[in-house]
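Page 47, continued from p. 46.
Same chain as before, 138 aa.
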Amino acid sequence: MPGWKRVQAIVDFAHGHLEWVAGASNPWTTAVDAYRAGQGVCRDFAHLAITFCRALNIPARYVFGYIPEIDVPLPAEPMDFAAWFEVYLDGAWHTFDARNNRCRIGRVIVGRGRDAVDVALITSFGPVTLTEFEVRAA
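Result:
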């Protein structure tokens, strides 16, 4: 399928071009900013891949949630808040993940939208301190 191959080529490019660096971006970082910097967080990987998909007329949407450490080779990364994307091919939405670029199971979807601004986990005004955080998926 040409669509699948194109999307996987986009994922491979974004995965190879960007280096995951905690704190490398902020809520105002665009796909172009991340591309030029060559680094970002999972949101930036998703935004860059979505941008390329849309440029090729492949419908794509942003997804965020949690990815548990199920079937991940040791040392397993701890479950974390994450972003990935979905594309519409062959009459259905399919998951792709430019940051991890490998199949992960047990994703817990929190939201879907056009981009991270569309489906922010939280919008706050003023300082906010996270004191505890735990998600369990089995």
